[in-house]
């Protein structure tokens, strides 16, 4: 039965649970913050936009805190972590959702865009993990969740920098799980497909199985409730992408070109 057990302790009771959402001013992060606050969680939302965070916190009731920060500044993670520990006495779950995306083909690569994407999507998340893992180990409980993407499963046109940044996050989450699960901490990997957000609004192609940020938040909550390591959605789309990875590269490249027209 051990092979059938959830990889993480399921999270079903959110009442009073202390959740820090990093990258929560819009899109999936904001929708997840509202969904968890509605279930009774104490939620802190972080991003660079103070105005958006304060508006979100005001809509979430007294249990939601706005904590502006910049994920490219490691000291900001430490500052907000300490503020939340003082306010709450501890942290139960940290969701690293901050991300940026610019659709680029190989001939459009620019060093400044590469740095900006990796600083936000990868280095910021790794710095955040470095800030919170010692605290969670010290309190002897808690979990972290990293938001990757199905773009990290395999190479895709226009994801020339975004895709590799998310592939690295998937690898990072798997490595964290190997280290932290034996010590009693949960590690969740969230891999969305296409979700209607300000970032995906940049795309000039048809996005298959596009869902709303609210539907994405519900899928994430359900995944926490099952104790999944990887929470991927919508499954009618993500399962196809997973199957494609089993194909020889010649077949994979041909199918991706045919599907995207690129």
UniProtKB/TrEMBL annotation:
The keyword Oxidoreductase applies. Transmembrane segments: none annotated. The keyword RNA-binding does not apply. InterPro entries: KR_dom, NAD(P)-bd_dom_sf, SDR_fam. Residues 17-193 form the Ketoreductase domain. It holds the Pfam family adh_short. Keywords: Oxidoreductase. GO terms for cellular component: membrane. One of its GO terms (molecular function) is oxidoreductase activity. PANTHER family: DEHYDROGENASE/REDUCTASE SDR FAMILY MEMBER 7B (PTHR44196), DEHYDROGENASE_REDUCTASE SDR FAMILY MEMBER 7B (PTHR44196:SF1). Belongs to the short-chain dehydrogenases/reductases (SDR) family. This is Short-chain dehydrogenase. It comes from Thauera humireducens. The lineage of its organism: Bacteria, Pseudomonadati, Pseudomonadota, Betaproteobacteria, Rhodocyclales.
